[in-house]
Design a protein that fits this description.
Length: 263
């Protein structure tokens, strides 16, 4: 969610960078289009009133086209918006766990990493690192790997498994000696169908968003309330919220956005 906001801000900053140049180009294009349309209309002998109408329409067409291209949201940003909506849906499903003694944290940062944790759940059944996925199609596994429809999930499985391990390592490092903890990595699918509602692949749980809260509640009790409070306090400190900083100085906005969209 926070990542989408950050990318949207960078896109807005980039658009601001080029607004003046676009305005000048649009005005020049409108004048040129109007002049050309007027010249052609005079060649075919149209009346002066009709010529004026065509000139205005030609200029407006150029201005409208430029405005649309300038203000439209790129597909990459739109894809991040859809991801953010799916994360909000997962957050709503998880937030009801708070009534059962769980602490739910969203958009958490990993130290010394550009990655983030979509959702971190801490409660009686342990710690859960949850990534929301928006791919469509049934989840299937064959000799070539795991797929969501026609999209391979090998890279995502590896990333989510690593995120769970890294979160566990950073939390344990700040807990009292003797603590044993293993955060369970989960991929929650907002649109894909998971056979039987659950799968375990390379240590990563795969399940639909709608079933994840019930699964966590039914997973048993491994932490006492005092342990939950301690672990949640450490998580708040070690894994801070993923902040959305304001856009940087205008001149590097374009290069930063392009670098992010190429990832």
């Amino acid at each position: 969610m926070a990542e989408y906001q950050r990318r949207r801000q960078l896109y807005a900053a980039e658009r601001g960078d080029r607004s003046r140049r676009v305005a000048v180009a649009a005005a020049a294009g409108a004048v040129a289009a109007g002049a050309l349309a007027g010249f052609l209309c005079q060649l075919v002998g149209l009346a002066a009133g009709r010529v004026a109408q065509v000139v205005v329409l030609a200029a407006l067409a150029v201005l409208g086209t430029v405005a649309y291209r300038h203000y439209r949201i790129p597909p990459e940003i739109e894809a991040w918006r859809l991801d953010a909506e799916a994360e909000r849906r997962t957050a709503r499903c998880l937030d009801r766990l708070s009534r059962a003694g769980y602490v739910v944290l969203h958009d958490r940062q990993l130290a010394d990493s550009a990655g983030n944790i979509d959702h971190l759940v801490i409660g009686p059944s342990g710690a859960w690192v949850i990534e929301t996925d928006t791919h469509r199609g049934p989840i299937r596994q064959n000799g070539a790997g795991v797929w969501a429809g026609k999209v391979p999930l090998r890279a995502m499985l590896g990333l989510v498994a690593w995120t769970g391990e890294e979160a566990t390592s950073q939390l344990v490092a700040e807990l009292p000696a003797g603590w044993q903890l293993e955060a369970q990595p989960v991929i929650a699918f907002a649109r894909a169908e998971v056979p039987n509602g659950l799968a375990l692949v390379d240590g990563v749980l795969l399940m639909p968003v709608s079933g994840i809260a019930d699964y966590i509640l039914a997973a048993g009790v491994v932490l006492r309330p005092i342990d939950v409070a301690l672990l949640a306090d450490v998580a708040e400190r070690v894994l801070p919220g993923y902040e959305v900083a304001g856009p940087p100085a205008l001149w590097p906005a374009r290069s930063r956005l392009r670098g992010m969209l190429r990832r």
